[in-house]
Amino acid sequence: IRDIASDGSLLCTVDDGGVTAIWRLGEDSPACTNLGPRRGVHHGLLLHDGRLLVADFDGGLRTIDTSSGEDLQRVRAHTARVRALSLRRDGSVLTASDDRTVRCWRPDDLAEIRRCTGHLGWVRQVQEFPDGRLVSASLDKTVRIWPEQAPEMDTHGHSGWIRSLAECGPALVVSASEDGSLGLWNVDDGSCLGREAWAETEVRAVASNARLVIAGCDGGALGRWWLIDGRLAGRTTREGAHDKVRAVA
Q1: Of 120, 125, 227, 232, which sits 20 to 30 A from 166 (CA to CA)?
Q2: In whole angstroms, what is the distance from residue 172 CA to residue 160 CA?
Q3: Tens digits of residue pLDDT in 137-180
Q4: Is the separation of the CB atoms in 143 and 137 below 8 Å?
Q5: Which of 177, 179, 176, 89 is nearest to 134 (CA)?
Q6: pTM for the complete prediction?
Q7: For residues 175 and 164, is the Cβ–Cβ distance under 8 A?
């Protein structure tokens, strides 16, 4: 299972076999299923009108009727795997892909309304800030900031692929990299406020609530930092908490 989406009454799962299953919470078997590409479905997102939007391994976006499991629409959104799928504050859909682009889509008809190009590697994650700016992280070792009405900026600081991003303040974002470090970035000017060398293995997951930063690495450890005056401080590490940590929240 690659992803789960729920609105409190429905639970939708997508998997590597291409199956999307739609469950009514409290029932023991799916209400309906959908068979997509055999190479798999990697992301699912319930839209405000009740449709399910899924992103396929092959770069396609599809909307599914949650009452019947039938496809409603399909577009070839990207030329490679979709790595991130989310809703923006204005209701549009945001995607990031191995084709090195970030794109925005109108959910009604899956029409492309914006494309951000410039990354030189797979884009693994993208975040939206409250003012509409987008921040993306890539295997090209950069974080990029995409203002709504200005040329994009890019930030350098990591020596390895960037695996994860988390918003951690009005103009701050923290990144996790395969170089074993966390990076703290100023979204206003694109500057790196510092790197925190932490693990001897890849750091794949990071989360923040604007006071704390939590990260997990391939070595199984969890790390915790306080955010104090725009810097990471007071690190605490719990070794051997897991096998490889792929997600934290």
Answers
A1: 120
A2: 20
A3: 898 888 888 875 555 566 777 888 888 999 998 889 999 999 99
A4: yes
A5: 89
A6: 0.85
A7: yes
